[in-house]
Amino acid sequence: MTPCQSILPITTEPPGDWYEFSFGEPATLTEGVLYAIVLHGYYHPYSPTIYWREDPSSPTYDRGYSCESTNSGGYWYKQTSDDNMFQTFMFIPGEKLTYGTLVITHPALLRIVQKRGEQLINGYDNLSSLDEEFFTRKVKLEVEGGDVIEAITIAGVSYRFLV
């Protein structure tokens, strides 16, 4: 398999963003072989910094884990308690591939959860606060058919959408 190398400016602001890396030919994967996404971070006097969105609460992808190296890859330390988020898509030439954008609007959204099957795709919490007087009125999600979106307002009203 040919490695895919890209140099992209990435956001340093939470909650992060999605980036696309394309391979020149379809990847051929072999069962039982460990594959990796390797990133090099921004320089920082104490250590390089990587901004990668993760789910530290209860990782849903139990076959993956994150590793970090403090000596340029000489040794890798396994981090099994976090689920670093990524998606993979395969496009077959000649087939139609469609994505969609869903914008959820409400005067005061509190929480949004997007699931694909049992897998958590996006989760936003504490989007609005009466105490601190800030309100999130709109959340934009990239969705696929079959996704389930759950939205809760600051008043506790729940909405459930099936894409």
UniProtKB/TrEMBL annotation:
Classification of source organism: unclassified sequences, metagenomes, ecological metagenomes
Species annotation: marine sediment metagenome
Name of protein: Uncharacterized protein
